[in-house]
Amino acid sequence: MNSSDYRREAERFEKKIKQLKDRAYSVLGELGSEVQSIRDRDPAARSNAEVLLLYPGLHALMAHRIAHALYKKGQFFAARAISQAARNATGIEIHPAAQIGKGLFIDHGCAVVIGETTIIGDNCTIYQGVTLGGTGKHVGKRHPTIGNNVMIGAGAKVLGPVVIGDNTKVAAGAVVLKDIPENSTAVGIPARVVRGKTAPQTQNLDQTNIPDPVAQELNVLKDRIAELEKKFGEDK
After folding, report:
1. How much is the pLDDT for 229?
2. pLDDT (0 to 100) of residue 204
3. How far apart are the two ends of the chain, measured CA to CA in Å?
């Protein structure tokens, strides 16, 4: 090799090193952002180190980022191997093809399942026992699309290619089989929608004070019965 060949090799090497450094800084920045989003939403988180080292939801998410990158490059076996290793370590199963936005907080995380064609927006919160799965009736897009700022309570199931709108809450134990509009709350089996603007979930993670649509319907019936009784009395 002559001097010009050495210079070209040196330039290529420097360029590669710069790319690796830029990527490392990018990953560290993303990781810091994910850690901060968890601390903002979890009052039990006392330090960045605690979140970084001891939160399985974060570990599963970081493993998914790697698996998803490999999946997009066609390295399907390696991607699936990483996702399965993460499942064994954390109890959280995320298919490497699932698309997940920034700021996802999987709280506790045990028995969370996120299917292959799932799409999750930014700043969502998912509690333990949640399934974002299929129904067995669909091909192609078989799993849910979750908007931004969505909270899905413990044990909830969102099944099929349904769309959950932005700023929506899915109550604990709900089974969602149909689209849920934005700024709503879904409760029950099958899930029913309680309309009305909800606060962004980063500020409102309350899973208990959720309107009960059955109680609301009963109140409507009581009012209607009282109205009919009054009318019947007037007609006598």
Report:
1. 78
2. 56
3. 112
Tokens of 155: 């044990």
| 3-class DSSP state of 110 | coil
Q: Look up residue 53 and give its amino acid.
A: L
Cβ proximity of 95 and 116 under 8 Å: yes
What pLDDT score does 231 carry?
A: 76
The residue behind tokens 């603007």 is 197
Alpha-carbon dihedral sign for residues 18, 23, 24, 29 = positive
Task: Count other C-beta atoms under 10 Å from residue 123's C-beta.
Answer: 22
Instruction: Compute the distance between CA of residue 142 and CA of residue 162 in angstroms, rounded to an integer.
Output: 9
Residue written as token pair 């009395």: 233
Model's pTM, two decimal places? 0.76
Of the candidates 41, 66, 155, 61, which has an alpha carbon nearest to the alpha carbon of residue 101?
A: 61
**In angstroms, rounded to a whole number, what is the distance separating the alpha carbons of residues 40 and 141?**
33
